[in-house]
Amino acid sequence: MDEETILMARLHFGDGAALSELYALLGPHVYALSYALLQSREDAEEVLQDTFAQLGSRPAAYRPQLGSPRAFIYTVARNAALSRLRARKARPATLDPDDLAVDQLAARRSDPDTTALVQSALSRLPDLDQRLLLDAFFSGLSHPQIAEGRQLPLGTVKTRLRRALLAIRRRLEEA
């Protein structure tokens, strides 16, 4: 069992120190993700706080069978950031895939091997699939918004996103 899973289990059983350890481990990554979506230091800090406050108050919301603790925490943060965007009726800054550093896609993880794996998995995807992933996960666009913006049928957008995510997952599991 990895460190993040152990920390989530400890948190689930009431170990308050586990939340501090999770924050130390993943806080910078959650902040980087939030900042990429919100383009505001203050908003990203609030999303960071909200994310870990929610983890502390509702640790049972994490279900291991649905994914890793890291993915769950990133999803909580992403949802909080998108809610904040909707509340202020703003849209995230458009991110150019060429300007988006690979280490940001890996949530600035310091492990160069992980960064290289993520970069390799993403680079093997067709260019359109890479752009669709960025639209969905970093620009916070809904599938209908992506379809309209890219002038693609909605079904095509959904299919390509699912296929791209599965391809990345397979490549990361192979490594």
Structure description:
- The structure is a single chain.
- The protein has 175 residues and is mainly alpha-helical.
- The protein has two domains: 3-87, Rna Polymerase Sigma Factor, Chain: A; 102-174, Winged helix-like DNA-binding domain superfamily/Winged helix DNA-binding domain (Arc Repressor Mutant, subunit A).
- 71% of the residues lie in helices and 0% in strands.
- The protein contains nine helices and no strands.
- It has helices at 3-12, 16-38, 41-57, 69-87, 102-105, 112-123, 127-137, 143-150, 154-174.
- Helix 7 packs across helix 9 (154-174).
- It starts with a helix and ends with a helix.
- Mean pLDDT is 82; it is low at 95-110.
Order of helices and strands: HHHHHHHHH
Query: Can you tell me the number of structural domains?
Result: 2
CATH class of the largest domain: Mainly Alpha
How many strand units?
Answer: 0
CATH architecture of the largest domain: Orthogonal Bundle
Give the C-alpha Rg. Answer: 16 Å
The structure class reads mainly alpha
The mean pLDDT is 82
Largest sheet: none
Unreliable runs: 95-110
Considering DSSP H and I runs of 4 or more, what fraction of the residues is helical? over 70%
Straight-line N-to-C gap: 17 Å
Number of helices: 9
CATH topology (fold) name of the largest domain:
Rna Polymerase Sigma Factor, Chain: A
Q: What is the approximate shape?
A: globular
What is the CATH homology-level superfamily of the largest domain? RNA polymerase sigma factor, region 2, helix turn helix motif
Percent of sequence in beta strands:
under 5%
